[in-house]
Amino acid sequence: MSAAVAVRSAAREVGVVWLGLVALGTGFGVVVTGYGFPWWLAPLISLTVFAGSVEFILVGMLAGGASIAAIALTTFVVNSRHLFYGLTFPLHRVEGRLPRAYSVFALIDEAYALTAGKDPAMLSSGRILATQAGLHLSWVGGSLLGALAGSLLGDVEGLDFVLTALFVVLALDAYDERPDRVTLLLATGAAGLAFLVAPGSMVLVAMSVFAATLLIRHRRGRQHA
Amino acid sequence: MPDPSYVALAIGVAAAITISLRALPFAMRRLLAGSALLADLGRWMPLGALTILALYCLSRIDLGAPDHGAGPLAGVVVTVLVHRLRRNAVLSIVAGTAACLLLSNLLPW
Lengths: 225, 109
Prior knowledge:
The structure holds two protein chains of two kinds. Helices cover 74% and strands 0% of the residues of chain A. Chain A is mainly α. Chain A has two domains: 3-179, no CATH class; 180-225, no CATH class. Chain B is mostly helical. Chain B is flat, with a radius of gyration of 21 Å. Classes of the chains: A mainly alpha, B mainly alpha.
């Protein structure tokens, strides 16, 4: 598959998610200039760190003059959920050393969500990379747009709903693909528990609890086998 | 703006930690290659992770907002209904987001 074909097919299927990231990125750009930082800092952070939620926290900490150690610890805690993505992301479908390195670098929540539920055999190298590069470009472009023109754009309430809709749709699809009630129940229980005990780091705690239940489930399955 | 070298160092540290966290599981995966555990995780993890991300987004709906969360809640209902009827991810996302935008912005809350 040529690069152009891969980009077009990715755009058809995940273009709406790219638009969602442009909208969210715009919000980030507005926040960065709102703290009094120069316009180029927002796209620079989005290009290099490329991790939505932690970027919002990072600029707040920078504006407040937080210590590098505090910034490092916060980044570590907030982004630790990424430890669970690489285990099942179809990196073996990506060809070439540099493209693979990029694919790992650009493994954000949305990139995992858009690929992990799918049959890896249906995902080409170009398709995975186009999906990720599109997410990256949209996030950087949105950050630039927000930093330059944020005050002119006004505030459209609810455009970031695209991501909520995305995860709901992908969870429905993943369930249809493999209607596994036990997994659904364990994940829902883990999320509910995390929401109650650690609302500030709900995703990390939920993923950790869920992963622990999977380990137990795996052991028990082995014993019965 | 604070000292540029402080800002550059902070961004570098945040970027390095983020990419390390993304890369580490691939190393673990090499250790687990071919194991039954990795096969089980591959079977269970995607649905579980997506369920958690979806529930996280739902938990962030602000019921104290001017619209009392009516926009996003209606958006979720429309997204699920359209997806059950047509099974077209793009259509479901656009329809749900349109419902959310309409309710959040156009109605006089």
